C-alpha cells in the first residue's frame, strides 16, 4: 500500500458539481494536501457541463470543504491549495469535446509541475462512463493515465462485461481503479492484520470451529431524495453485489502468498468462484413503509430498500458454513458489523446443573460507527454458586489511539494515485460477483414491508433460524 506521496499528476474530476465531489472528493483531496501526502506537482481540475469560472470553482470548493471536511479551509494552507484548483466546462458526448481539456492539462504541466501525469476520477453516473472513455481515447489523454470509476459496476453480468469491454478498449487493466469505498475503511483493512498477523486466529478460521458468519450493513436514514436511483438500482445491486460481497471475500479468503496486489485479489476471486449462485429462496427483499410516497418512486414500486440473503462458499475451509448477509435503509440504527459465531463445545460439563451457557463465543468486527473488535465469551458470574454469564473483551480505536480514523476515500485516492491496486476490484472479480447474484436478479423474490427504524421484515429473521442476527450493543449500553 502507498506510504509516500505519488508522482506529480493532474487530477481531473468528471462530475465536479455533483454530490460525490462536494461531500467526499474535495474534502479528501484537501485533507491529503494538509497532511502533506499529495505530490508537490499537483493540479485538481473540475470538469462538468456546468459553466463556471476558476474563481467560482475555488469558492465552491471552499464552501463544500468548510461544510464536510475535518479541517477548516483557511490561512496559507488554503491559499496554496486554491492555487492548484482550476475548472474546465465541457461535454462528455460530443466528438472531440475534450480538446479544451487536453490543452488545459498541458498548461497544468507547465505551470503546476504535473509532468504529464494524469488521474481521472469519474464522479458521474455509470451511464456517462462510455462517453468519458471514448473522449479520453480520441484526444489521446489516456496514455499512462489512471482512471477511477465508482460502483455499481453495471446492473448485471451482461452490462458489467460491456463496461469492462469499453474500459479495455482504451485503458489497460493496470490503469483502471474500480473503487468500493468499504475496502478503504480502516477496520475492513484491519481484517488482513487480524487474520494473517496473529497465530491464534487462523487455525480456527474455518468450518471446524465457525458455526456461521454474519455481515450487517444498516443505515438509519431513508433514501434522502434518491428515489429515481433506488427505482433503477435497488439495494441488492447497490450494496450486496458490491460492499457486502467485497467484505465477504476478505473474511473468507485464503492467505495470499504475498501482499502483492494481484496475489491478494487472486484469493478474493477464488472465494467468489467457490460461492454457489445465490438461491432466491434464501433471499428476503424488503421495502420500508412510506418508501412509495417518496419523490420519483412509483406508487406500486417493487424496488427493495432492504435485502437479507444466505450464501455458501463451497471450498475446503468453509463448506457448510452459512454466510448471512443483510443491509437496508431506515433500519433501527446505523451500524456495520461482521461477526463469526463459533460452534458450541462438543460436550457440556455443566450438563444437569443450572450453569447453562448463555450464548456462543463470537468474534465481532465493528466497521462503523464504533470502530473496533470484540470477543464475546461465557464466564462464571462473580458470587456464591456457579452461574455462567456473558463477557465482552473489547478493543476500540478511539480509546486506543485517540485520533480520528482516516476517511476511506482519502486512503483509496492516495492508493490509486500511487498506482497500488490492493484495495480495488479487478474485472474478473466484478463479473463473477454478478454471476453469483444472477439467479436473484432473474427471479426476484417478493417484497416484504417493514416498519421504519426496525430491523427489517420478520421474514429475514425466519430465514436464518434456528440462528439469530447479532448486533453489537452501542458503546453506552456496553459500559458498566
Could you explain the architecture of this structure?
This protein is of the alpha/beta class and 480 residues long. Helix content is 35%, strand content 20%. It has 15 helices and 15 strands. The strands form 2 sheets. A 9-stranded mixed sheet has the order 14-13-12-11-7-10-9-8-15. Strands 3-2-1-4-5-6 form a 6-stranded parallel sheet, with helices on both faces. A hairpin with a 7-residue loop joins strand 13 (372-380) and strand 14. The longest helix has 19 residues, at 234-252. The protein is globular and about 80 Å long. It starts with 8 loop residues before the first strand and ends with a helix.
* Unreliable residue stretches: none
Helix proportion range: 25-40%
Order of helices and strands: EHEHHEHEHEHEHEHHHEEEEEEEHHHEHH
Q: What is the averaged pLDDT score?
A: 89
Structural class: alpha/beta
Brief characterization of the structure:
This protein has 480 residues and is α/β, with parallel strands linked by helices. 35% of the residues lie in helices and 20% in strands. It has helices at 19-34, 54-68, 75-82, 99-112, 129-138, 157-168, 186-196, 227-232, 234-252, 261-274, 397-401, 408-417, 427-442, 458-463, 475-478, and strands spanning 9-14, 42-48, 85-89, 118-122, 146-150, 176-179, 210-218, 283-288, 306-312, 322-328, 335-342, 362-368, 372-380, 388-396, 447-450.
